[in-house]
Design a protein that fits this description.
Helix content: 55-70%
Bound molecules: zinc ion
Shape: globular
Strand order of the largest sheet: 1-3-2
Number of strands: 3
Number of helices: 13
Strand content: under 5%
Radius of gyration: 19 Å
Order of helices and strands: HHHHHHEEEHHHHHHH
Structural class: mainly alpha
Largest sheet: 3 strands, mixed
Distance between the termini: 38 Å
Length: 303
């Protein structure tokens, strides 16, 4: 049960990190924060989460307080995030729809759970543009549980198409939400990329295999964040699913994918420590190693 223990440990670390957002802000303000240990985008996301949690009228001044202390790279990322997090703007910039697409109720419930539990669900501004459907059959799924369709035409700014294997019609909302916390992260990254390209950022237009691996690693990290933010009963349910004798006997792909995820998390992140952000960055790097060495993802990313 090593993997469960380390996952709980990680969940504990992440819960603590919610409290330490303020501490991180303070250490940046006082100039004692060591920027070399975390990436610009992680620190920008953390700060953005902190600033967006403040009352609207305090946000600008809070940003001013630290802007001088931030390296340019972080400042650039942050300004971008703040621009899209501003309550008036995300819909205009990322998704022009005012309501959600109609889709099976279980997907709406799963999205609602993700929304309710995750501390900073970055995918929120694109929620109205997510179109989630069951694939007609598993043949369309290329061995995957869920698929976000990147192809131009299938996904656009206002229609981010996700297919879920019809096997999930027999699964609990919790397992579906676990899957969607992965796919919606892909949808979000795609939306951001489109936004950057439309804003003239031509570097974002080129997709390298490295971007592809990174996107996967981030999607897995989002799943980890999702599981970590569940309440105790929900966590227990997920663990019960993988341990149940009937799921062992049936050995279905859905349960298996959760189990593989938990084992991978246990094996790779047991070496991660530090505060919440450091653990997350370390987890992301571990996922990156895993996807890079997986023949399945090599096939997907090296083309
Ligand atoms: Zn993926």
């Amino acid at each position: 049960m090593v993997f469960i223990l380390s996952l709980l440990f990680l969940a504990y670390g992440l819960q603590k990190s919610k409290i330490s957002l303020e501490k991180q802000f303070e250490s940046i303000k006082s100039g004692t924060f060591d920027f070399s240990v975390v990436s610009a985008s992680s620190i920008a996301k953390t700060l953005n989460g902190y600033i967006m949690s403040l009352p609207k009228e305090n946000r600008a001044s809070t940003y001013q307080e630290i802007a001088l202390k931030l390296p340019d790279e972080v400042k650039k990322e942050m300004l971008f995030l703040l621009k899209i997090s501003d309550e008036k703007k995300p819909s205009d910039l990322l998704c022009d729809r005012n309501e959600m697409y109609s889709m099976p109720e279980e997907f709406l419930r799963a999205l609602s759970l993700i929304q309710q539990r995750m501390p900073f669900n970055l995918a929120k501004p694109v929620n109205n543009c997510l179109l989630i459907q069951y694939a007609t059959s598993d043949n369309e799924m290329v061995e995957a549980e869920g698929l976000f369709v990147f192809e131009p035409g299938s996904s656009t700014k206002d229609k981010l198409t996700i297919f879920v294997s019809p096997r999930y019609k027999n699964q609990s909302d919790l397992l579906t939400a676990f899957l969607l916390s992965h796919e919606t992260k892909h949808a979000w990254s795609y939306a951001i990329k489109q936004l950057k390209v439309s804003g003239g950022d031509m570097v974002s237009k080129i997709s390298t295999s490295e971007d592809c691996y990174l996107d996967e690693a981030e999607a897995f990290t989002n799943q980890l964040l999702f599981i970590s933010s569940l309440n105790e009963g929900e966590k227990e349910t997920l663990f019960a699913i993988v341990q149940s004798p009937s799921s062992y006997l049936l050995n279905n792909q859905e349960t298996q994918s959760l189990k593989n995820f938990l084992v991978t998390v246990g094996e790779t992140t047991s070496k991660c420590n530090g505060d919440g952000v450091q653990v997350l960055v370390c987890a992301k790097n571990s996922f990156l190693d895993v996807v890079k060495s997986s023949s399945y993802y090599q096939k997907q990313c090296e083309r």
